[in-house]
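In response to reviewer comment 3 from the previous cycle, which asked for concrete evidence that the modeling workflow produces usable outputs, we include below a single protein chain processed end to end. The sequence was submitted unchanged, and the resulting structure tokens are shown without manual editing.
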Amino acid sequence: MCEHAGPEPAPEEVREALLAAHGPSRLRLVGSVPSLVPALKVLREVSEASLPQARELVRKLSHEGLVGTLPEMEFLKARLQLRGVHADLDR
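The workflow returned the following structure tokens.
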């Protein structure tokens, strides 16, 4: 059980344990996206990435997808959907 809560990322040892126990999840954008600006904004908000880093994350999200724990990818998917960006989650 993990008692971690809050907006900060989970401690690395918790993240690694989740990945080992449940495997990674992959999040990808669905279909064509008329503008990547909403996705850039979400990624900058949730990861505090610089603009070039956020662009690289959106590129990955558009192609091979972003990989992480299921809670991380569900959180990101929900934030993207709030901005009208549709994404698909593979477990």
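The chain has one domain: 22-90. We consider this sufficient to address the reviewer's concern, and the full set will be provided in the supplementary archive.
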